[in-house]
Amino acid sequence: MYAIVKAGGRQEKVTVGEIITVDRIDAAAGASVSFPALLVVDGANVTTDVAALSAVKVTGEVIDAVKGPKIDILRYKNKTGHRRRQGFRAQHTRVKITAISGAK
Fold first, then answer.
1. Position 104 confidence tier, pLDDT thresholds 50, 70, 90
2. Which residues contact 102 (CB under 8 A, 6 or more apart)?
3. Cα separation of 34 and 99, whole Å?
4. How far apart are CA 104 and CA 101, in angstroms?
5. Measured between alpha carbons, how far apart are the two ends of the chain, in Å?
6. What are φ and ψ of residue 43, in 5° steps?
7. In terms of Cα–Cα distance, which of 66, 59, 60 is closest to 93?
8. GO CC: one term (predicted)?
9. CA 45/CA 100 separation, integer angstroms
10. Where are the alpha helices (DSSP H) in the chain?
11. What is the pLDDT of residue 88?
């Protein structure tokens, strides 16, 4: 059984026991979080009905907060000596999926 959930502006395919990395969630390590399900596949049964999916709960446990890879932003204009350097590192949260409940 697996589910497609909406997490941090993206869709993630999750199964029970899987660890996923999503955009930062403001929750402490060990806290429980839930994600809205967009699709549930249980063997040959595929659930896409909005009314049926409203009863489905995908829950997970926050493991820790991590940082993504560093992105270097370099801007350069020739003949003027103009150079600008900027860096960015995204904040992520690792979540372990504990249950997909309510699926028929």
1. low
2. 55, 56, 57
3. 10
4. 9
5. 11
6. 70, -115
7. 66
8. ribosome
9. 15
10. 50-53
11. 97
Give the pair of three-digit tokens for residue 89.
Answer: 């590192």
Q: Which amino acid does the sequence have at 98?
A: T
The strand pair at 82-101 and 32-35 is best described as unpaired
Residue 93 one-letter amino acid: T
Could you tell me the pLDDT band of residue 28, with boundaries at 50, 70 and 90?
Answer: very high
pTM to 2 decimal places = 0.83
Residue 96's H or E segment, with its range, is strand 82-101
Do 38 and 13 touch, CB atoms closer than 8 A?
A: no
User: How far is residue 65's CA from residue 97's CA, in Å, rounded to a whole number?
Assistant: 15
Contact assessment for residue 42 and residue 103, using Cβ atoms and an 8 Å cutoff: yes
